[in-house]
Design brief:
Number of strands: 41
Strand order of the largest sheet: 29-32-33-37-36-35-34
Strand content: 25-35%
Distance between the termini: 86 Å
Helix content: 25-40%
Largest sheet: 7 strands, mixed
Structural class: alpha+beta
Number of helices: 21
Radius of gyration: 39 Å
């Protein structure tokens, strides 16, 4: 929100330096992002902590001047000579401003034109170059005439980008006055939080300044009489759903003229970020910026014509199926059934609270104006904005909530401004339909509430005084303050929520920086274990220790993104998604089913930035449950690896890519650390994984995860490199249930082990895990470790066969094993392998 200081001073006296005012507002929750100076001198950089920008107008170089006559240039059609008085002398000034051409050669002007005049040596922006390029006025000759000064456009003075003509000031501008004294200003650019939309206007900001400084607040006043023929019977209102449209107000002005607004009005609008159009439209925008109530002006004669010459009936209703409207931006829009519309008996007139329709807009021929002030359901406005991809200053405010009480005040002020700037006669009375009056909450609080939540001691009188500054109606009953919310705010709730809201207002007015830091003095909540969180943190610590990097991804996605995990780009499952009713982007419309898809999306974005990526995430997925409003949210663990096994170094210039067994090793280390019992790996077939390079993770008889190399066709759906992509997705909750909370710890051995190797030949189809299982079973308690260290295939052992070599470790806890005991164990192992697997010892 852009707040011109001069406009702010209409409602509250301000004697603070600019940097002090900026800090005061920021500390009250209204963050000042920048202060743009319009002519005012730049503060010393040592004296402020805020960003200041803009162009300063030196008092002796920039003044208000008057043009008394405009003469043609003898040698140039696009140049004119102006006889100008700067308050000290009369001079001839050369200019090519097109808005002065109509006055050329008419002799002395009936009324002097007041302009902004820059003298020789003035530093200003070059109006003929893009952006803001500073230049200094120097004496030169142009087409035979001396040129050393100029009449300025808004761009050259740093007011706006307008440079098609010079500024024509109001007639009462004092000739010779320094320009900075006449119209110098500062524009505060303030970040308005969504719950503080009441401050997205000049009056709202003035109310804050008055409350913070203790200065009186001046409200806007009406100056024009409402003595025209009554509005009664000239227009009718029908509201179909008060929940969508709680209030609708109309006022009428006849005989208005849509001429240019006074320059001071145009200047304020431009400084606030809006483009002046004409006196009637400017009045609606001015009032919106002034008090925060958006208005919309209809050409009343067009409405009467659409109604067949009868007084129009204006209706608010949801759009019909297939209904369309061409809005003021010239776009024909297909309307959604939820969109609330303003219509008449002939059809749609405007998108309620967002933008008007082109057919009934104000034009240069408009003379009679029907002015609308209304209140709309802010959720519905947000849905319309998103669906239509359309925003506006009105929608910005309505989508955050405008109090219905402002509708009548806005229409009355809007009519007054129209009559003041464009003439016309204001009709007596208003048409006001208010089917759902707003109830302003009454919040009760006590000094102990303030002490407990804010840590400051205030009496009931001090509490009431702080809130009264913000126009709360306060009443003291014993040790309780009853505070009624003022009729311009919708951000104060009821009950405990209202108490928290009011306490925030007390803290703002007291001053966040004035609240002393204290130790927590309240009762501590009971400490209880959180096993699920502890398990998640344990798994994260283990994986980080294994060299993986944690990522946190969006829980929102799209079905198309998750379908990339299948070679055919079809949905992963037949389960429905949890869908957002009002998504902020087409890429985030549903709650995810797969955590792996989210992690692969992160890998896709970063794969070209690193030679090795090893990522993991712990997070929920969202599965709808039939008959239940909320979905089931199981926690998953997803891992993704790709790139080099180790980064190249001087002693290892070449290294291989990560493969299936690297991921298997990481999983074995993780599962060993959490003491998962009876872990086995079993070949699996999953659409996302490479056939033959995929396995289930099994504990006992329970499958709790799957891992492997990504399927080549799935990999093509992502922007990955040539290296294999390894992935795993695990049901973390199930895995931790299967893990052992109690487990045995063996003492460090004190007797030496017996080490020997054994190589056996088995059928190609025999899993190595089966061989290990038989070896462990046959070795018994004296076999402490089995380790596969070599595999071999070749003609020497026969077709369809493979050789597996194991390192065996025998150890007894109470003695040193003899060679005979070791040989006995070895023979038992060989015999069992022959009996159960048909293995034979390789010689």
């Amino acid at each position: 929100m852009k707040i011109p200081l001069s406009w702010l001073k209409d409602f509250v006296d301000i004697d603070l330096p600019l940097d002090k005012l900026a800090k005061l507002l920021t500390m009250a929750g209204l963050e000042v992002e920048e202060v743009r100076l319009v002519g005012l001198p730049m503060p010393s950089s040592e004296l402020h902590e805020f960003k200041f920008s803009g162009l300063s107008w030196e008092s002796d170089k920039f003044v208000v001047a008057q043009i008394d006559e405009i003469m043609p240039h003898p040698n140039a059609d696009r140049l004119v000579l102006c006889r100008l008085n700067d308050g000290q002398q009369e001079i001839i000034v050369l200019t090519g401003a097109p808005n002065l051409y109509p006055y050329k050669g008419q002799g002395a002007l009936p009324r002097p034109l007041k302009v902004a005049y820059a003298k020789e040596g003035a530093r200003l922006y070059d109006g003929h170059q893009a952006g803001q390029v500073l230049t200094t006025l120097k004496r030169t000759k142009i087409r035979g005439f001396d040129s050393f000064s100029m009449v300025c456009s808004e761009k050259e003075l740093g007011i706006s980008d307008e440079h098609e003509g010079v500024m024509i000031l109001d007639e009462d501008a004092p000739t010779g006055m320094p320009l900075v004294d006449y119209m110098g200003d500062a524009v505060f650019e303030i970040s308005i939080l969504p719950n503080m939309i009441r401050n997205a206007c000049i009056l709202g900001m003035a109310r804050e300044v008055a409350a913070l400084t203790g200065k009186p607040l001046r409200k806007p006043v009406r100056r024009e009489p409402c003595d025209g023929p009554s509005i009664e019977g000239q227009v009718f209102i029908q509201i179909s759903d008060p929940n969508l449209n709680p209030r609708f107000v109309f006022g009428l002005i006849r005989g208005a003229n849509p001429k240019p607004s006074p320059y001071w009005v145009q200047l304020r609008l431009r400084l606030a970020g809006m483009r002046p159009i004409n006196s009637l439209v400017d009045a609606t925008n001015y009032v919106m910026l002034e008090i925060g109530q958006p208005l919309h002006a209809f050409d009343y004669d067009v409405l009467v014509q659409r109604a067949g010459g009868q007084p129009p009936t204006i209706m608010t209703r949801p759009a019909k199926v297939g209904e369309r409207l061409t809005t003021l931006d010239g776009v024909e829009r297909k309307l959604d059934p939820f969109t609330i519309m303003v219509t008449d008996t002939a059809g749609a007139l405007s998108l309620a609270g967002v933008m008007g329709g082109a057919e009934s807009e104000i034009t240069e021929n408009t003379r009679n104006v029907l002015l609308e002030g209304a209140t709309w359901n802010f959720v519905n406005i947000r849905k319309t904005i998103t669906a239509q991809k359309l925003n506006s200053e009105a929608a910005y405010r309505f989508s955050r909530g405008i109090h219905p009480a402002l509708a009548m005040e806005g229409v009355q002020l809007g009519l007054d401004r129209m009559a003041e700037w464009g003439g016309g006669q204001i009709a007596a009375g208003l048409v006001d339909e208010y089917p759902k009056p707003a109830i302003d909450p009454l919040v009760s609080l006590r000094p102990q509430d303030v002490r407990r939540h804010l840590g400051i001691d205030l009496s009931t009188r001090e509490i009431a005084d702080l809130l009264s500054r913000l126009e709360f109606e306060c009443r003291i009953q014993g040790e309780t303050v009853l505070a009624k919310t003022p009729p311009h705010r919708l951000d104060i709730g009821e009950g405990l929520i209202g108490l928290a809201d009011v306490l925030e207002e007390i803290a703002r007015m007291y001053g966040y920086d004035a609240i002393q830091s204290t130790r927590l003095a309240d009762t501590l909540p009971p400490q209880r274990n959180n096993p699920s969180l502890e398990n998640e943190e344990k798994v994260k610590d283990i994986l980080a220790g294994l060299g993986l990097q944690e990522v946190i991804t969006y829980r929102l996605t799209s079905p198309e993104k998750e379908a990339r995990l299948r070679p055919d780009n079809q949905p992963q499952d037949e389960l429905p998604y949890v869908r957002l009713q009002n998504p902020i982007t087409p890429e985030r419309v549903v709650m995810r089913h797969s955590l792996l898809a989210s992690v692969l999306e992160i890998m896709e974005r970063n794969i070209r930035l690193s030679e090795r990526l090893a990522l993991f995430e712990v997070g929920p997925v969202f599965i709808p449950k039939t008959g239940q409003e909320l979905p089931y949210e199981p926690t998953r663990l997803a891992i993704a690896l790709s790139g080099l096994r180790s980064l190249p170094a001087w002693d290892t210039p070449e290294t291989k890519n990560l493969d299936f067994f690297d991921l298997k090793g990481i999983l074995e280390a993780l599962l060993a650390e959490i003491h998962l019992p009876e872990l086995t790996f079993e070949p699996a077939s999953q659409p996302a994984y490479h056939p033959g390079k995929c396995a289930n993770l099994i504990s006992g008889q329970t499958v709790f995860g799957v891992f492997g190399e990504l399927h080549p066709l799935v990999k093509e759906h992502f922007d990955f490199g040539a290296a294999p992509v390894l992935a795993a997705e695990i049901d973390l909750e199930l895995m931790m249930k299967l893990a052992s909370s109690r487990y045995e710890i063996n003492p460090v051995p004190v007797f030496p082990p017996v080490l020997e190797d054994i190589a056996v030949i088995v059928d190609e189809e025999t899993p190595a895990a089966s061989v290990v299982a038989v070896i462990r079973q046959a070795g018994g308690k004296l076999l402490s470790d089995v380790h596969l260290f070599d595999t071999f295939r070749g003609g020497q052992i026969g077709a369809g066969k493979k050789s597996l070599a194991y390192a065996l470790t025998y150890m007894a806890p109470d003695r040193t094993l003899t060679d005979a005991e070791a040989a006995q164990i070895r023979q038992r192992i060989i015999r069992r392998l022959e009996q159960e697997l048909g293995a034979r010892l390789r010689s």
